[in-house]
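Title: Prediction job returns without error message
Component: structure pipeline
Severity: low
Priority: P3
Assignee: unassigned

Description:
Job completed but the reporter wants confirmation the result is attached to the right record. Sequence as submitted:
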Amino acid sequence: MSLTRFIKFLIIVMLLPAFVHAEADKEFIVMIDPGHGGKDAGALGLKTNEKSINLAVSKKLRNLLNSKMKDAKVEMTRDGDYFVTLKERPDMANRKHADIFVSIHANSVDKKSPLHNTICGSAVYTLGLRKSDTNLSLAMRENGVIKLEPDYTTTYAGFDPSSAESYIAFEMMQHSNIDQSIALAEAVQNELVRTAGRKNHGVRQEPFWVLVGTTMPAILVELDFICNPAMEKFMASEQGQDKLALAIYKGIERYRRNSTRAKGKVTPTMTEIRQAEDRNAERNQQKEEKSSRKESREASRTKADKDRATAGDEIIYKVQFLTSPTPLKKNDSRLKGLKDVDYYKDGKTCKYTTGAFRNQADASARLKQVKKLFPDAFVIKTRDGKRIK
């Protein structure tokens, strides 16, 4: 297994141009991916298996989208009991120019685990890497289907799903749709708890191969634990499958509703949103001040300046530049040496900001500086430490 060859492959994936929405009134394309299938049964329960549950819930989700979301077009990586490779699944989504990718699975733990018959709960994953043996074992199990393919080391550029060394390269991945993927994951997970009554295991990031090659917001849903007989019975039942499918549908619908344009059109890409925000900021800056301010004035703004920007009912403008699933240390390299850094929680996600300004013009001046380090940075409004949308 060549780690160097695999790293080169990941670099090519990172350089793939992300799909850009063509027109605002295009169909909303959802690619549903029922995990496993055919010779790959997935995790096993006492009476059924993962591939059957995944397909049943996926078909019910397809029916809901077709009947309730009038502009949705639903595609599926499989609609029967047959084998589809991990590489083919995201490739299908890319070819169909899908707006979102939803991979559906059922979870399990080793038979030797004392929790084998009692563990329960759902979780939704986006692409990433958590450095723990427990989390890595889940990714290894889901990615292990690769070994059912002939000459898989060639197809997957030397990636070995059972080698911890292969997963080191995943830390290089910069998912271009990470914010949208997390937003979609949070919406779906909240509904799995609220609508389907699942125990909340939260939104997580793992190195699932099926999410690597997607050029759109992508999530992997673990419905519940098939190794728990009670949870298996629920997932295998018509009532349980109806609730799970409805929960995922509601999550998708909420994700769209929260990120649609004022006229109800399909969401633009994050790049388009941020470009629009930048243009608006520039217009406001021109109206509010006739002469430009020197960039060094804002670069030298100290923490004392921030403290003078009182909270309460006053609107404070900040520059948001980074998101993270967990809080970062002050000297974390991902902050790239930025000073005057703060963060706020949006669901399970930490969103990092710099600066605190009483007017948008000052925030826009800081934005120009921050964009040199974080091209996707943008200005947000806050009141009493909370973002105003």
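Comment from assignee: result matches the submitted record. DSSP finds 14 helices and eleven strands in the chain.
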